[in-house]
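Narrative of activities, Objective 1.

The group set out to show that a structural description can be obtained from nothing but a protein's sequence at a throughput compatible with the screening campaign. Below is one input-output pair from the validation batch, recorded exactly as produced.
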Amino acid sequence: MWGEGDFPEEVRARILEYEKKSRYLRKRSEDYEVVEDVFDKSTKMALYKLINKGVLHILLGVVKTGKESRVYWGKKSDGTDVAVKIYLTVASEFRRRLPYIIGDPRFVETGRGMHDVIEVWAKKEYRNLTEAYEAGVKVPEPFGLNRNVLVMQFIGENGKPAPTLREVEEVTQKDYRMIIEQVRLLYQKAKLVHADLSEYNIFKWKGEVILFDFGSAVSIDHPNADEFLLRDLENLNRFFDKNGVKTLRIQTLLKKVKGE
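Output recorded for this entry:
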């Protein structure tokens, strides 16, 4: 493994710029956590490897902050916009995520240490996105992963993320139908259940709906998959009912999604 002194000068300068921008932007947003929470040594190494592989060229600013991660707007060397999700290596919140890992047959050998859980969670989100994207589900295209850093398609423009369903002025019957179709594709083609689906992690962008935040998603073979699917559908119906959009009965939805 490289030491910090082994970074090429260009990469070291770029990562230092990330830190300066991050510190400035986070102070402006009244987020006073220390910048080292994001850019610790292992995260710098992960960024370096992604830059080396051509998956990432530069970060341009924070677009979303949370207890478990930060999402940055970035670009590839060809100018393509990317979203860079950095899972915080000091976030104790990840221990609550173990039920979504244990029982998933794709992740049977998982350590219980904090760093183990965080890296598996990042790997899990990347794999879920990949499987969903390849199945034709409308999700951000995944571009690359290294340790706790995930690079994917940026949904939005000029560094401003697309609005979620929660943020748009109006939701329609068409939106509801499109989302149920994506949940059906996710289940039948990708063999996944999102397990945390709500109006907060569905973008509405250019006439389409795009599902995101796939860390919680589980294989349909997970022992709690049916429970998670039911919760997802109840969340969707609750939101659309509240907004005056006609919804289907839950049992009808379950049969539609499962193809029964």
